[in-house]
């Protein structure tokens, strides 16, 4: 048994998932992204809390150290946040091309954006009551928010991103006050709009994370295992070098941790060297495949990264969210992640 740090996670190779988990079938249609709720009103509020209880128990039981909400209280990782803001018209949705690859029905910005009330703070406070383990809460990143709506007011992606960053910072500070230990910003757009990442993306992200004492994470991925994404990945060639553009900028940034895809991806593992000094949340679980990894496969993926990140800076994780997977597969993948990290932890302890 390895030493545990103050927060209760193992000091070496703690495990944590990126974000979403399948919702129970009584709450939303399984294996569907943006699935509509099956409950309404008070029953929905109660159902969301019950789902949080379930995902906390599943993660704990399967050996996950830093617990997530599994996105049980939101329909979508970006639009659910946006829809809570003033200045956004979510009744009149528009279909726009997002991440430069697929069309989605999204809300429209029609005036100055503002957060009149907390979005997820109550949910996070409830999650806090369910466990003494460290908890992580994910928010969309400013650039990914801008890329997941239709803007009919600002006319500048950078200006709107900075407005969103200020709003995200308010929310993140309140999540921290509610007991959240790790605040994660999801920025899949960082793998697509490289010039914007350089010109204002990282600056907007830092604005969102400004002044937080909680650990800050940026998650950059190649998306859920849906067809539009797997088709896109097929065009990226033998080596996926997208991180090469953002990592040097993030290495110089105030963000503590970078979450990236690794297992079954074509990301050259040596790109991790570009964020030397940062904590690395490495994806050792493929979310685009229903095949459950073996603990040895997970350990192999994590071990390969150790040439480029110090062991005490490595967090074992998934490539992305697991919402679209069958529930039993996602649960078994949690177990594989924990078992693989434990295997490597033992190996490192024996080598000492
Ligand atoms: Zn992702």
Kindly summarize this structure in a few lines:
Residues 13-337 form the Cobalamin-independent methionine synthase MetE C-terminal/archaeal domain. Its cofactor is Zn(2+). With 352 residues, the protein is of the alpha/beta class.
Question: pLDDT below 50 for ≥5 consecutive residues: which ranges?
Answer: 1-6
Please state how the strands of the largest beta sheet are arranged side by side.
1-4-6-7-8-9-10
**What's the pLDDT, averaged over the residues?**
94
Number of separate structural domains: 1
What ligands can be seen in this structure?
A: zinc ion
What's the SSE pattern? Answer: HEHEEHEHEHEHEHHEEHEH
Task: Tell me about this structure.
The protein is α/β, with parallel strands linked by helices and 352 residues long. It has a single domain (41-351), classed as TIM Barrel (Alpha-Beta Barrel). It has ten helices and ten strands. The strands form two sheets. It has a seven-stranded parallel β-sheet. Strands 2-3-5 form a three-stranded mixed β-sheet. Strand 6 (182-186), helix 6 and strand 7 form a beta-alpha-beta unit. Helix 1 (41-62) packs parallel to helix 10 (327-351), helix 6 runs parallel beside helix 8 (243-251) and helix 9 packs across helix 10 (327-351). The protein is globular, with a radius of gyration of 19 Å. 48% of the residues are buried. Mean pLDDT is 94; it is low at 1-6.
């Amino acid at each position: 048994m390895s030493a545990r740090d103050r927060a209760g996670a193992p000091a070496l190779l703690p495990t944590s998932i990126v974000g979403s988990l399948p919702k129970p079938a009584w709450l939303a249609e399984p294996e569907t992204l943006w699935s509509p709720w099956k409950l309404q009103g008070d029953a929905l509020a109660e159902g969301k809390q019950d789902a949080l209880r379930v995902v906390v128990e599943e993660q704990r039981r399967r050996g996950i150290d830093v617990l997530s909400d599994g996105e049980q209280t939101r329909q979508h990782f970006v639009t659910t946040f946006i829809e809570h803001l003033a200045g956004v018209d979510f009744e009149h949705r528009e279909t726009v091309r997002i991440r430069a690859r697929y069309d989605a029905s999204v809300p429209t910005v029609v005036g100055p954006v503002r957060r009149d009330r907390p979005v997820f703070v109550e949910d996070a406070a409830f999650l806090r009551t369910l466990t003494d383990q460290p908890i992580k809460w994910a928010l969309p990143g400013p650039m990914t928010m801008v890329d997941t709506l239709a803007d009919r007011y600002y006319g500048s992606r950078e200006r709107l991103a900075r407005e969103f960053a200020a709003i995200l910072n308010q929310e993140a500070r309140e999540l921290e006050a509610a007991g959240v230990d790790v605040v994660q910003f999801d920025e899949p757009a960082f793998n697509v709009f490289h010039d914007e990442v350089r010109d204002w993306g990282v600056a907007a992200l830092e604005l969102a994370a400004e002044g937080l004492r909680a650990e800050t994470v940026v998650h950059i991925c190649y998306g859920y295992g849906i067809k539009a994404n797997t088709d896109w990945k097929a065009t990226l060639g033998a080596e996926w070098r997208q991180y090469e553009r953002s990592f040097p900028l993030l290495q110089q940034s105030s963000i503590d941790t970078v979450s990236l895809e690794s297992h079954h991806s074509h990301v050259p593992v040596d790109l991790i060297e570009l964020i030397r000094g940062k904590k690395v949340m490495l994806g050792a679980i493929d979310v685009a495949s229903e095949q459950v990894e073996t603990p040895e496969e997970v350990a192999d993926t994590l071990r390969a990264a150790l040439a480029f990140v110090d062991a005490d800076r490595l967090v074992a994780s998934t490539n992305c969210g697991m919402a679209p997977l069958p529930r039993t597969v996602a649960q078994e993948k949690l177990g594989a992640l924990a078992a693989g990290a434990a295997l490597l932890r033992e190996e490192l302890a024996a080598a000492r």
